[in-house]
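Please decode residue identities from the backbone states below.
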């Protein structure tokens, strides 16, 4: 993998109950590639509240403790909305490879959010590969990204 993130730090990952199985499979996939993972839950398929997992993933990325974040929930909208409440977070929802590429290339996303109820696991891992291997383009996109945060 030729990634655009500093993988000397772990990747933060979280999900709600709907994304639990994808989270577990993603952890296994990343670990097999020698990538460190910080699992911030959920820890079963029992019903939970997605903000309880999106906030810790976002905090780990925002603080620099994690290289980037991965969030799964049923639609990925709940975790994306929650993550984007953090000033240092740019969480993008991805459901196809072009979107996964563009959230990095144009938006400098540092968390990828994926809808476990609407994409197959092999596609989720493919989206993650695209996300990890795409660098931020900067330039005019940097100017735009710098306007995102509320000051």
């Amino acid at each position: 993998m030729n990634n655009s993130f500093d993988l000397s730090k772990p990747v933060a990952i979280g999900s709600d109950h709907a994304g639990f199985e994808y989270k577990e499979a993603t952890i296994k996939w990343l670990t097999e590639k020698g990538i460190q993972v910080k699992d911030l839950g959920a820890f079963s398929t029992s019903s939970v509240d997605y903000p309880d997992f999106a906030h810790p993933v976002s905090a780990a990325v925002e603080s620099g403790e994690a290289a980037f974040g991965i969030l799964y929930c049923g639609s990925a909208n709940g975790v994306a909305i929650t993550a984007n409440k953090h000033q240092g977070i740019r969480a993008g929802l991805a459901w196809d490879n072009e979107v996964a590429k563009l959230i990095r290339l144009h938006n400098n996303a540092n968390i990828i959010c994926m809808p476990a109820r609407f994409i197959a696991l092999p596609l989720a891992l493919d989206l993650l590969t695209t996300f990890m291997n795409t660098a931020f383009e900067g330039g005019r996109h940097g100017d735009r990204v710098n306007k995102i945060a509320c000051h």
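Observation: Strands lie at 11-15, 37-39, 69-73, 91-93, 111-115.
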